[in-house]
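Lab meeting, action items carried over

1. Structure of the two-component assembly. Owner: GW. Status: complete.
Input record:
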Amino acid sequence: MKLNIEGLLVYFPYDYIYPEQYSYMLELKRTLDAKGHGVLEMPSGTGKTISLLSLIVAYQREYPLEVTKLIYCSRTVPEIEKVVEELRKLMEFYSKETGEKNNILALALSSRKNLCVHPEILHANIIVYSYHYLLDPKIADLVSKELSKKSVVVFDEAHNIDNVCIDSMSVNITRRTLDRSQANVETLQNTILKIKETDAAKLKEEYRRLVEGLKEANVARETDIYMSNPVLPDEILQEAVPGSIRTAEHFVGFMKRFLEYLKARLRIHHVVQESAPQFLKDIFEKVCIDRKPLRFCAERLRSLLRTLEIADIADFSAITLISNFATLVSTYSKGFTIIIEPFEDRTPTIANPVLHFSCMDPSIAIKPVFERFQSVIITSGTLSPLDIYPRILDFRPVTVASFTMTLARTCLCPLVVGRGNDQVAMTSKFETREDFAVIRNYGNLLLEMSAIVPDGIVAFFTSYTYMENIVASWYEQGILENVQRNKLIFIETPDAAETSMALEKYQEACENGRGAILLSVARGKVSEGIDFVHHFGRAVIMFGVPYVYTQSRILKARLEYLRDQFQIRENDFLTFDAMRHAAQCVGRAIRGKTDYGLMIFADKRYARADKRGKLPRWIQEHLTDGSLNLTIDETVQLSKHFLRQMAQPFRQEDQLGLSLLTLEQLQSEDMLQKIAQIAHQA
Amino acid sequence: MNGKWNDCFLGLKIIQFLIELHLEVDSIKMDEEPERAKRWEGGYERTWEILKEDESGSLKATVEEILFQAKRKRVFESHGQVRLGMMRHLYVVIDTSRTMEDQDLKPNRLTSTLKLVEYFVEEYFDQNPISQVGIITTKNKRAEKLTDLAGNPKKHIDALKKAKDSTCGGEPSLYNSLSLAMQTLKHMPGHSSREVLIIFSSLTTCDPANIYELVKTLKALKIRVSVIGLSAEVRVCTVLTRETGGSYHVILDESHFRELLMFHVKPPPATSSSECSLIRMGFPQHTIASLSDQDAKPSFSQAHLDSTSGGPGLSMGGYFCPQCQAKYTELPVECKVCGLTLVSAPHLARSFHHLFPLEAFQESPLLLHHTERFCEACQGELKDKSVFTCPSCNSVFCVECDLFIHDTLHCCPSCIHSRSAP
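Predicted assembly:
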């Protein structure tokens, strides 16, 4: 159908449209008009992707000078494929409707086997790729730095974007990294020697270039051709590479010294935590390495690798990591912390020293993106509470909106179970974690649900250790045996191969009527990337509130930083983080309007306003007072009723006019008024 | 033609002739109001959520609306001129697994189900006199035949009564039940409609092999599988019914369960590929030898010969097969001796309305009808806000009479009246 969105003609490749899609496009258009950034939350399965694509493509066609490119960032390869599929549909619709040949070029970067090096791809109108191509400074420099300023960047499934930013800037150095770097340095040295014998002029030429400094890059940046790179700070562009590392041999020697120092630092027996300036002071005192050459490390290494014409850069990943670390640690005095741990918390007897150079400020990595592109859209099914993302990513959005799902039937049923039938409170709180009664009640809940929910149930625990403890205890109490009379049980493990095997078997059991339960972990692979449509997930049970492991030093440092820099209280952030993961987990069950599922929050703390209020609006609005603090029996009653209701025939005609609209219905006054209420400005 | 020999082919003429008879038979049998479960026995309901106040804050309008809707609640599926599978071979599979002990139907699922199936069997033969039923139960991963395919309701009902005392246990097996039903059904003639109706309480099934292979076989054999679920929607049933062309429903409560079962009483539309053929039938008359006749001796019914149950089996009169003179006490039946299908004329007439259903009456608001103040049928005053008009004679009826005419009478009394009047 063809839509008129505030004067913009939008081609929408389907005959029907959800009201919230229309509302979403309205908000999106306003964001583009204002040339600002936006944060938009809309439940999954309501057609976010196609709304985004059709509006932005229409905008590009209408105002080709205002918006030249769409950069669509998604998280995983299957998601990228989904986007490409939708895009293909849109393009077909365009050529059918307008009759002209398709003049839009789209490019998807998924894996090396699909790589294309045709020069024309530089002019692609739409680029679809993974977050890392834009956020990770190491990759962004190769892939994304030449993207035009007048681009619209979309981050889909962006609820974890702060963690992606942090990960892309953090460096972990173990003994193994150092050993491999050592080997890398050896190779470099040998290559330099060889080249010196055969082609000394080349090294001289490099030396000359380094004296000139990084002028070229500076010119490029000033003329606004490239996106800035956080690993290549502004100041060093103005200066020449310092003399101490200008010749290749000197640089290699310098790196050797640096490596030795790091090795010495790893030989410790107690935990050390220090800031970047402290680290720099220490390194200067111990091995006389100055701050300035350290800052040029990354650039210098890159230049050297280029000069030596080394083809396979992957071999040199270890030394590249070290040089990046050197640059980062000497550039940023704030926002990073260094933690050296002699062993892992779980295995205090085995020495396994790690140096965490941990980024605490996600805004550092994403800053260039916000600065460079005129519109950045952050969107996901779960972004609540909406105001926290602009704060932790440090940007100022022009639109912040949350959309609810219009439903012809209430297909989601969130329930908060707070007590067992014996009235003992159910919670995963640390103090009562080992409590026998709590574990038994959790077991009873699973047992009762396994008897009434058809096909698949997905249960999430707060961590692997917690899951192990509970499952062991259930086994002793004979609960597992009883559950197995109703359904098969599969367990997620940290091992990816094992987990995908379990998943496959789980789906098979759901498919052929045996029924299955998947026990998994919030923040695990299952909770993030895998959808449990229809019968694969008729109920999701969230055992406990998935707080992050608070004893971790990295997290503590980050919390402190958030408090000092952004005035976000520790507890607020922890709750926010726990709730977004809980929302992600329970959201796995509902992947569209024809789907239905139970969402069971098994912890009394979910009933509290501070937790409940942080759930996405589309879940919150179905969480009434009547579904809070239930006992197991009440839950079973409500669930049975819900499942029977949902099993009644449901056809497309039932949705029409309510949650699914034709063009005429969309244009009616009443509907437009209703649509205006869908978007909820934060 | 010999007076005793009423051997003829199923034809339209006879059916037309017999419609009057059928009217008499059916109108005697008043449909008793379905018994709703007691309020406190029902599930957890949020009745207050349905109520909405009108502008003046009164609830009256919504309450009336709800009552009216409840009366009208039924499916108006007039197929029009569609070929129906009048000759049905149906296996009813009853899940008797552990989950049947659940007490959400009173007194428990098993008793309630068996009671309803009993009623269903009666209705089924009432509406499909030339069809057959068999019953299969499944528990402990096995499937057993409770009764074979047969046209005699009594045998099934006896078996069902007995089954009430059996214990439930283990898991059901869809695969075993279906393959058991399939073994018999696949030998049924091509013109008959082959059906399986599963009453499925459990949420799991324990199968010895891949059930999707079996579904393909069922589809190839044109066996239609329908499922009534007692707890929730199970994926494998969805696929099974979709692939084989059956229906899948899940009950809400006991009265809904009854409704869903009754839905299966009506013959389904025939699949386009099923054969057409003429069926040879016998219409024996009931003869009782007069007491004065000294030669009369009590004789055994053929049907009683192999039955282990039942009374003495000796009787004076009965139906005699027009072809071989074998005696039967009940109809309809397939003659044991010569294989002829024996039915009585009223039986056949009862199937008639399935082929030519009465057209739906037009619903219109009462306000439009100033002249008619009374219902044409019951002569009661028209009070509801909607009335129903027969499209052919333009008579006006109230909701109750509309339901009664379509569900039970199957013909408009006003039309009949005007036709028979001289």
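2. GW to write a short summary for the group page. Key points so far: The radius of gyration of chain B is 24 Å. Residues 1-37, 73-79 of chain B have pLDDT under 50 and may be disordered.
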